[in-house]
Amino acid sequence: MATLTVPVTVPSPAEDCEQLRKAFGGWGTNEALIISILAHRNASQRRLIRSTYSQIYGEELLKSLNDEISGDFERAVILWTRDPAERDAMLANEAVLRWKPGNPVLIEIACARTSSELFAVRQAYHTLFKRSLEEDVAAHTTGSFRKLLVPLVSSHRYEGPEVNMKLAKSEAKILHEKISDKAYDHEDVIRILSTRSKAQLIATLNQFNNEFGNAFNKNLKSDPKDEFLASLRAVVRCFCCPERYFAKVARVAIEGLGTDENALTRVIVTRTEVDMKLIKEAYLKRNSVPLDRAVAGDTSGDYENMLIALLGA
Amino acid sequence: MATLTVPVTVPSPAEDCEQLRKAFGGWGTNEALIISILAHRNASQRRLIRSTYSQIYGEELLKSLNDEISGDFERAVILWTRDPAERDAMLANEAVLRWKPGNPVLIEIACARTSSELFAVRQAYHTLFKRSLEEDVAAHTTGSFRKLLVPLVSSHRYEGPEVNMKLAKSEAKILHEKISDKAYDHEDVIRILSTRSKAQLIATLNQFNNEFGNAFNKNLKSDPKDEFLASLRAVVRCFCCPERYFAKVARVAIEGLGTDENALTRVIVTRTEVDMKLIKEAYLKRNSVPLDRAVAGDTSGDYENMLIALLGA
C-alpha cells in the first residue's frame, strides 16, 4: 500500500553517499540528484546511507542537507530521511512546544501507528529530548486536551483481533450517554478511546451505530468550531479509516488560500511507506482529482518534485 | 545487591530438568531437590530450564510444578520460576481483577521497576491476557485511584540524570499548594508523580523539603486510614527508597496476627535478583532482627525453606 519506488538494483550505501556528496559540491546544489536518491530508498536503506555518510565524511547527512537546501524542500527531505520513529518524535515535539488546541499531530502519532511504532517514538523522544513524550504533553497541554492526549500518547494497545461483544454493547451505551449529556471529556469516554484495542473500539463504534441509528462521529458535530470535538473525531478516524482521514488532511492543506505546506509534507512523508496508495484512492474518490495532480498544482520547484517522487509518480 | 546464590558450576539445563523430573517422580515429591535447583538459578537460567523441560517432556514446567506442589510453597516457586516481566504481569492482573483500594502491587510495578522493565511487563500482559494493562486498570479501578494508577502503569519515564532545578522549584510549589488544599488527586499532583523522571522527581521532593520544612510524605499522613494517601506515599517511597519501602512491606506481612504470605512472597520473589541485600540491611536497621530470622520464625516447611534459600542463607 506504499507508494515508495525503489530501483530494482539499489546502489551500495557508499555509492549513494558519493552521489549525494557530488550533489552538495560544485557551484550549486543538485537537488534533482538528491531527490533521485533519497526519495527512492526505504527506511532501512536511508538509515544505512546516514550511518555510512557520517563514517565517510565525518559529518551528519542531515547537517549537510541542512546546509545545502532550504525552505519546504529542506523540511520535506530532512523529515523523510529520518527514521520513522525519530521523525514522529520530532513532529510530536514541535506540536507540543507550539501547542495549540486542535493540532492533530499527537493524535495521528498516537492513533495511526501500531503499538510498537508508538513505543519506538517514545524511545526516540527520550534520546532526542531527554524527557518523555507524555511528560511534555502533560506539561504543555491543558484541560480537556490534556485529559485526552496524555493517555493517548502513553497507550500500548493490545493488537489482537479478539472482540468482546458484550463489552462493545455496554461501552457503546456509555459513550451514547456521555455524548448525549455533552460530557465529551468524561473520563469514561477518554478511557474507552485511549485504552481499548483497535478491534474492540471498532466493534463498540459499530454497535453504537446499530443501536443509536447514527455514527458516533456524527454526534460530535454539534459545534463545528469546537476543537476538542474535532480532536475526538480525529481519534476515531485515525482508527477506523486512516486513509480517508489523511486524504482529508491533504485536501484541507491544499485547498483554500495558500497551501499548508507543513501539513502536506507531514501526510506525505509519514504515509508514503505505509498506506499512501490507499490515501491516493480515497483522495481521488472524494475530490475527483488525483492527489499527485492536486499537489503539483499547488506546489512548485524542488519541493513539488520531492513530494511527487514520494507519491510514486 | 541481589541475594540470589548460583553454584560456581551450573549444571546444564538438561541436567537440571532431569533432576526436577526425578523430584516430581516416585512416591512423593522431593521439595528439597526442587528448591536446591530453582532457587539457585538466575532469570535467564530459569528461562532455559523451562524451555528445555517442555522440549524434553512435552509439558510445561510450571504445569508439572502445579501438579506436584501446593499452597504458599507452590505460589512462591511458580512466581519465582517465571520471567520477571511475566511474573509482574500475573501479579498486576491479580491486583486488578481483585481490585481493592490500597493494594500497592500496581504501584510497585509502575514505580519500582525501570522504564524498560515496566514496558516488558506491558508486553507480557498483552501476551498472557489479550488485553493491555492500562485497559484493565482503567476498567477495574475508580475515582482517585484510577486517576493515579492509569498514568502510572502507562508511563515510560526518561531515565537520564538531568535535573531542571527551576522546574523542581516550581513543581515543589505546585505540590505544596495542592497538598495544603487537600487536593491530593489534583491533576497536577498526578501529572508530576506519574510523568517526571526519577531524578527530576527526587529533586522536586528535595526542594519541597528545603522550601517547606518537612518531607512531602509527611504531609500525606493527615488521615492514616486514607488508602489514597497511603498510595501516594507508596509512589514516593518506591522512587526514593525502594529498599526501605519493601522492608516495611515485609515487616507488615510478618507482624501481627497471621502472616500475609502473598505479600511476603511477592517482596522476596520480586526483589531477590534486584536489591534484596539492601532490603535486608534496611530491615535489620529498622527492626533489630535479620529478615531471614523473622521469615524463619513466621513460616514453616518447604515454603520457609524456599524463602530462606532466596534470601541467600
From TrEMBL, chains A, B:
Q: Which domain of life is it from?
A: Eukaryota
Database matches in Gene3D superfamilies: Annexin
**Where, in this chain's numbering, is Ca(2+) 3 bound?**
D298
Alphabetical UniProt keywords: Annexin, Calcium, Calcium/phospholipid-binding, Metal-binding, Repeat
GO BP of this protein: response to cold; response to heat; response to salt stress; response to water deprivation
Any one cellular component term from GO for this entry?
cytoplasm
Q: Which InterPro entries match?
A: Annexin (IPR001464), Annexin_repeat (IPR018502), Annexin_repeat_CS (IPR018252), Annexin_sf (IPR037104), AnnexinD_plant (IPR009118)
Keyword check for Metal-binding, yes or no: yes
Which residues are recorded as binding Ca(2+) 1? F24, G26, G28, E68, I254, G258, A296, T299, E304
An example of a Pfam family matching this protein is Annexin
Is the keyword Transferase assigned to this protein? no
> Which Gene Ontology MF annotations are present?
calcium ion binding; calcium-dependent phospholipid binding; phosphatidylserine binding
Question: What's in the domain note?
Answer: A pair of annexin repeats may form one binding site for calcium and phospholipid.
Q: Which family does it belong to?
A: Belongs to the annexin family.
Q: What is this protein called?
A: Annexin
Name its species. Carex littledalei
Q: Which lineage do the record's taxonomy fields give for this organism?
A: Eukaryota, Viridiplantae, Streptophyta, Embryophyta, Tracheophyta
